[in-house]
């Protein structure tokens, strides 16, 4: 995974220094923990996460499980692996489907995070599992957002519910686009979309909402109003893994503003430092459910903390 190439190299080098040692001295453990700390900070992992992580690794590495291990160096790698799985959220968590369809999934996040693309990816992935998703265009902030969602819907072969033509550039209706009410009101569009899904028996509704370049009160209020009005089964916070140190503040602001239930990491294919990926689950206590790894609609996968940890350490 390109995002973690550098981190992986650094960790692997650190572990190399331990290899072949029969017993680890306190200095060995200290040196290793210090290297891990530097490698994580250089990868843009949030300081509060790094501190907790290294404290746990140090404590365990000083304890019996390492001193009594046949191969102490390998045991340290195992501990780092376990603790990485923990900060990535522990057990994998999947989408929670509603008992009575439609399952409503709301997307929130900053502009450019990859929400609209993700809406298409998620819809296509769900459709392949015999679900009948409907995309709802409740991002009325960006002039192009409704059109973009329709294009994505068409590529994914999934229906799109959008505000009526005349309001938001919806004139070039794709065959599978439906136009409801709502006008310029995103809360109403979201509600109408869900009603439409219920009437037409779509079993999943994915509601795309507006993002701004930075966190702002108006955006948060709008997302929160939509959340209250539609009471979604899942609220997925979509975050660009490359945003670096801003990740934590952004995630906390969205957690407070809309109280999301899960995280989607995007742009894990990027070559920038992917510290966001390693910080967000831990600082918000919310699981990462999906990962997005490219611009194509198939560049998308369910997120498994254990697989991610192994990839980082490989
Ligand atoms: P939104 O403003 O949150 O709806 O973001 P968009 O879905 O419009 O995505 C913003 C840009 O990021 C677009 O150019 C997408 O093609 C691109 N993008 C989205 N997801 C990924 C990803 O996982 N990897 C890469 N490399 N680009 C992505």
UniProtKB/TrEMBL annotation:
The family annotation for this protein states:
Belongs to the GTP-binding SRP family. SRP54 subfamily.
Protein species of origin:
Lacisediminihabitans profunda
Sequence ranges assigned to domain SRP54-type proteins GTP-binding in this UniProt record: 287-300
Q: What is its main location?
A: cytoplasm
Please, one GO biological process term?
SRP-dependent cotranslational protein targeting to membrane
Instruction: Tell me where it resides.
Output: Cytoplasm
Q: Which GO terms describe its cellular component?
A: signal recognition particle
Give the first-level EC class, as a single word.
hydrolase
Write out the catalysed reaction: GTP + H2O = GDP + phosphate + H(+)
Quaternary structure and partners = Part of the signal recognition particle protein translocation system, which is composed of SRP and FtsY.
Q: What is this protein called?
A: Signal recognition particle protein
Q: What is known of its domains?
A: Composed of three domains: the N-terminal N domain, which is responsible for interactions with the ribosome, the central G domain, which binds GTP, and the C-terminal M domain, which binds the RNA and the signal sequence of the RNC.
- Chain positions recorded as GTP binding sites: 109-116, 208-212, 266-269
**MF-aspect GO terms:** 7S RNA binding; GTP binding; GTPase activity
Gene that this sequence comes from: ffh
Q: Does the keyword Nucleotide-binding apply?
A: yes
Entry keywords, A to Z = Cytoplasm, GTP-binding, Hydrolase, Nucleotide-binding, Ribonucleoprotein, RNA-binding, Signal recognition particle
This entry's Enzyme Commission designation comes to: 3.6.5.4
General function of this protein: Involved in targeting and insertion of nascent membrane proteins into the cytoplasmic membrane. Binds to the hydrophobic signal sequence of the ribosome-nascent chain (RNC) as it emerges from the ribosomes. The SRP-RNC complex is then targeted to the cytoplasmic membrane where it interacts with the SRP receptor FtsY.
């Amino acid at each position: 995974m390109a995002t973690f190439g550098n981190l992986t190299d650094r960790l692997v080098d650190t572990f190399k220094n331990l290899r072949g040692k029969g017993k680890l001295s306190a200095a060995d453990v200290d040196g290793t923990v210090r290297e891990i700390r530097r490698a994580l900070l250089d990868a843009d992992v949030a300081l509060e996460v790094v501190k907790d992580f290294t404290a746990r690794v140090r404590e365990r590495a000083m304890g019996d499980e390492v001193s009594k291990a046949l191969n102490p160096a390998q045991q340290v790698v195992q501990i780092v692996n376990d603790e990485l799985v923990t900060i990535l959220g522990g057990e994998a968590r999947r989408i929670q489907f509603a008992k009575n369809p439609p399952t409503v999934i709301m997307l929130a996040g900053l502009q450019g995070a990859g929400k609209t693309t993700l809406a298409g990816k998620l819809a296509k992935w769900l459709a392949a599992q015999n679900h009948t998703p409907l995309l709802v265009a409740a991002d009325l902030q960006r002039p192009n957002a409704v059109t973009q969602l329709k294009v994505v819907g068409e590529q994914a072969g999934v229906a799109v519910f959008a505000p009526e033509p005349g309001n938001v550039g919806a004139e070039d209706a794709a065959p599978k686009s439906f136009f409801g009410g709502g006008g310029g009101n995103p809360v109403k569009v979201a509600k109408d979309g869900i009603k439409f899904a219920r009437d037409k028996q779509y079993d999943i509704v994915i509601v795309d909402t507006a993002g701004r370049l930075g966190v702002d009160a108006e955006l948060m209020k709008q997302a929160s109003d939509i959340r209250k009005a539609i009471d979604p089964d899942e609220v997925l916070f979509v975050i660009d893994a490359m945003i670096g140190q801003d990740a934590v503040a952004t995630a906390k602001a969205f957690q407070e503003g809309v109280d999301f239930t899960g995280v989607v990491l995007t742009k894990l294919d990027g070559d920038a430092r992917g510290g966001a990926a390693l910080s967000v689950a831990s600082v918000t206590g919310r699981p990462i459910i999906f990962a997005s790894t490219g611009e194509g609609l198939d560049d998308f996968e369910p997120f498994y903390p254990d697989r991610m940890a192994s990839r980082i350490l490989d």
